[in-house]
Amino acid sequence: MDWQRLSTHEHARRRFTAALLPIGTVEAHDGAPLGTDNYIPEALCRRLADELDMPWLPPMPYGVTRSLLAYPGSCGVSAACLEGFLVELGASLRRNGLRYLFVIDGHGGNLEALQAGAARLFEAHGLYTAVIEWWFEAQALAEEIFGAEGLGHAAVDELGLLAGLRPDLAADFPRGPVPSYAVLKGVKAYPAPRPVLTYDQAGETVDLARLAPESCERFAEGVLRIVSRAIREILSGWQALDRERDGR
C-alpha cells in the first residue's frame, strides 16, 4: 500500500479514493533522532495502510520549525510554504480521483498551516481533508502507561511511541534523566531553552528510564488503535454525507 511503489497500471485498477499523508519536520530532539517527527507519522501510516485499505503517500519531511530552529541540524519551511504544499498536492490528487485525504502530522508547529490548507482544499477543490495529531488523543493512554510526569516534546510519550514503532531507532536513546524545560503557559521563548520540553510538569529533568520495550510496544499499539478509530469515524461520516448529497 506504498503509493509510490505501485505502478501506473495498479493505480488505474485500484482507483483509490482515500489516502494517508505523513508530515513532520527536522528538528532537535536532544539525544533522539532529528527525524523523530518524520519517523513517527511514516511508521503510523505504514502500519495503518493495510488495516484501513488505503495507501500512504511519500512523507513530507519539512515542516514549520520555530522554537528549536537554533539547535544544530534543525531546519524547516515557512507556514505559507507548508500550507501551499498541502493545497497543491491535494489539488493534484483530487484531479486524479482522490476524495478523502488523512494527514498524519508528527509536529505540533505544523498544525495551524495544515488546518488552513485542509480548509482551502475542501472549499476550493472539494477534497475532504482531516489533520490528525496523535499526541492530543493519546495523552490519557500515555499517563496510564508511563505516568503523568515527563510528557512532551522529545520526552517520555514521544520517544516511547517512536521506540514502540521503530525499536531499531531506540538503541541510541538516552537512558535515565535528561535536562528538560517546563513550558509555562504565559511565557514564550525563542529559541527554546532546551530541546526536551514538558507541558504539565514543573521540573528540570525527564527520566527516560521508564521507556521499557514492553511499555513502548503497548503504547504504540494503543496509539495505532486511537488513530485508526478516528480515521474510520471520520471516513464513515464523510461517506454518509456524500450519499446524502448525491441523493442515495
Automatic annotation (TrEMBL):
GO MF entries: hydrolase activity, acting on carbon-nitrogen (but not peptide) bonds, in linear amides; metal ion binding
Domain of life (superkingdom): Bacteria
Key words, A-Z: Hydrolase, Metal-binding, Zinc
Any one GO biological process: riboflavin biosynthetic process
Alphabetized InterPro entries for the sequence: Creatininase-like_sf (IPR024087), Creatininase/forma_Hydrolase (IPR003785)
One Pfam family per UniProt: Creatininase
Cofactor(s) essential for the protein: Zn(2+)
Statement: the UniProt record of this protein carries the keyword Hydrolase: yes
Signal peptide start and end residues: none
Family to which this protein belongs: Belongs to the creatininase superfamily.
PANTHER family registered for this protein in UniProt: 2-AMINO-5-FORMYLAMINO-6-RIBOSYLAMINOPYRIMIDIN-4(3H)-ONE 5'-MONOPHOSPHATE DEFORMYLASE, 3-DEHYDRO-SCYLLO-INOSOSE HYDROLASE
Name of this chain's protein: Creatininase family protein
